[in-house]
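Job type: complex structure
Entries:
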Amino acid sequence: MSATDTSFLKQAVQLATRSVAQGGGPFGALIVKNNNIIGRGNNQVTINNDPTAHAEINAIRDACKNIKSFTLETCTLYTSCEPCPMCMSAIYWARINRVVFAATEQEAANAGFDDAIIARELCIPYEQRSILIEHLTCHEHDQCFIEWSNKPDKTEY
Amino acid sequence: MSATDTSFLKQAVQLATRSVAQGGGPFGALIVKNNNIIGRGNNQVTINNDPTAHAEINAIRDACKNIKSFTLETCTLYTSCEPCPMCMSAIYWARINRVVFAATEQEAANAGFDDAIIARELCIPYEQRSILIEHLTCHEHDQCFIEWSNKPDKTEY
C-alpha cells in the first residue's frame, strides 16, 4: 500500500459520507487508471429505485462511459466498503484487476447492510436456496446462440 | 411449470434472439408480477459500454423504474439463460423470489460466455483469487455509517 492508495481510498470514503447527506446509501467508490480517477459512484438504491445501483456498480458504469470501453483492464477500484457478491462479480466482468476497500463486510452488516446470505447462497446448490430457481426447456432456447455464432460483425467479450 | 411459465420464458428467449439483430448480446429477460410483464431487458454490454448491462440487470432496473420501487417481491424473473453470479446477486438484492431460465450456463459457455471462473472465485478466499483484493484501514472509514445511523429520515433496505 502506498500514500497514493491511502489518498484514493480516503476519497472513496469521503464519497460514502457525502452520499448519506445527498440521500444515498453510505457507500462510495472510484476507479483509477494510471493514477487518474476515471469514474466515481455512490449508492443510489433507494433514491433511484434501482437495487443494482451500488457504489461500485455506479463507479464501473461511470468509468466505462467516460473512457468509452466495456472493460477496465489495469484499473484499480477503491471502495469505502468490502464489495458485495454482485459488485465483486461486476468487478470480474469489467476485468478490473485490483480492489482496495476500507470498511469490512462485518462493519457494513453492523450498520444494517448484510449481504452474507447472498454470498452463502451463491456457494450452495439451487435446491438448497431460499429462492426458487427452475430450469425449463424451451425449444427455441439456443436460436440466439446460433445467430450470435453466425453474426460476422459481432463484438465478443 | 405451467403454460403461463412456458409463454413468458418463450418471450424472454425471443428477446434474446432479437437482441443479436439489434447489436446486443444473445440474452433476454423479463420480470412478471401478478401475470403482467413489468420489465424487460436484453444484453447491452458492448453497445452501451457497460459491463453490468446484462439482460437480467436491465430487466430489474426497468421493472423497478416502472413500478417506482427498489424491490420486486412476489415477482418472477424469466431469463433466456441461467443467470451469472452478478445477476443472481442482483436477484437477491431485488428480493425476487423465483427465477425460471432456459439455456444452461454450459450452453452459454459453449457460445463463448463463460462465467464459471467468477462463480469459483466467489467461493474461495481472497488470497487464492486471480485478482488482488486488499483491505486498507482508513481512520474515517466508519463516519458514513455513523451519519447513516444518526439520519432520522433514512430509507432502510
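Summary: Chain B touches chain A through 89 residues (CB under 8 Å). The CA atoms of residues 141 and 147 of chain B lie 11 Å apart.
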